[in-house]
Amino acid sequence: MVNWGLLSQLTLAISVVIQAYLLFSANSLSFPFSSLSNPQRSLQAPPTTSPYASSWGSWLHPQSTRKSYDVGVGTEGRGQGGGAIGRDWNILYHLGGNGPWVEKVDGIVEGGIGVPDGCRVEQVHMMSRHSERFPTIRPGVRMLELVKRIQDANISLKGDLEFVNRWNYFTFDPQAHFEQLTTTGPFAGTLEAFTTGVKLRT
Predict the structure, then answer these.
(1) Is 198 strand, coil or helix?
(2) Of the N and C termini of the chain, which has fewer Cβ atoms inside 10 Å?
(3) DSSP state string for 29-63
(4) pLDDT of 77
(5) Residue partners of 145: CB distance under 8 A and separation at least 6
(6) Contact 64, 106 (CB under 8 A)
(7) What dihedral angle (degrees, nearest 10) is formed by the CA atoms of 105, 109, 111, 117?
(8) Which of 8-22, 104-118, 142-156 has the lowest mean pLDDT?
(9) Which SUPFAM superfamilies does the UniProt entry name for this protein (predicted)?
(10) Residue 64, CB-side half-sphere exposure with 13 Å CA sphere
(11) What 3-state DSSP class applies to 96?
């Protein structure tokens, strides 16, 4: 009989481990954002060494509104790192709420957020959730307990899960960091919140 609770905890723990690996090993990663050449403009991967923020002149990536026949990708506007095509896969687009925010590249709103001609901005109202943060207490404790159970089982995992054999939680004091914004890496929650405020202010 399948223990669905344990399976879901393992899935969550693995996705958090992957996120931690991405955040703290970012300098050694390459993100295959687009493997297709584009004569109009080259797409770029989410950065690995500087703060990551959305493009400001449009809702999302300005190139992603172009039709596939314009840029010659032949995938009906899909791809561009979102993993719609096999050679264009990027894990950041498949972690959902368990990974850092990255700019959407498929199925976006066209037209951008620029001020229409003849208009000017008088007020800005912003509703926003937190930036990237550590797990909340309950899931965080479950992750720690699951990793401890796996390590206490005294088994040696192999293949894709081999890293769990020597994995430690990605913060020196998990209990203190639960529910707090992350402070390091290109997706740091504190930096993202600050830069968003600066963009709105200026």
Answers:
(1) helix
(2) N
(3) ----S--S--SS----PPPSSS-----SSSSS-GG
(4) 45
(5) none
(6) yes
(7) -130
(8) 8-22
(9) Phosphoglycerate mutase-like
(10) 25
(11) helix
**Dist. CA 161–CA 102, nearest whole Å:** 25
Q: Is residue 26 predicted with pLDDT exceeding 50?
A: no
pLDDT-derived band at 3 (thresholds 50, 70, 90) equals: low
Would you say 60 and 105 are in contact if contact means Cβ atoms under 8 Å apart?
yes
Length of the chain: 202
118/113 Cα distance (integer angstroms) = 15
Q: How many CB atoms lie within 10 A of CB 9?
A: 18
Per-residue pLDDT tens digits for 155-175: 888 998 888 888 887 777 887
Find tokens 């919140």 and name the residue.
193
- For 130-195, the DSSP string reads --SBPPPHHHHHHHHHHHHHHHHTT----GGGGGGGG---SSS-HHHHTTSBP-SSTT-HHHHHHH
CB 186 within 8 A of CB 19: no
- The confidence band for 87, taking pLDDT boundaries of 50, 70 and 90, is low
Q: What is the average per-residue pLDDT within 101-130? A: 75
Of 112, 114, 100, 124, the C-alpha closest to 51 is 100
- In the structure encoding, which two tokens stand for residue 130, read together? 């937190």
Q: Is the pLDDT of residue 20 over 60?
A: no
Amino acid at 176: A
Residue listed under structure tokens 């890293």? 163
Q: What is residue 32's predicted lDDT score, i.e. its pLDDT?
A: 35
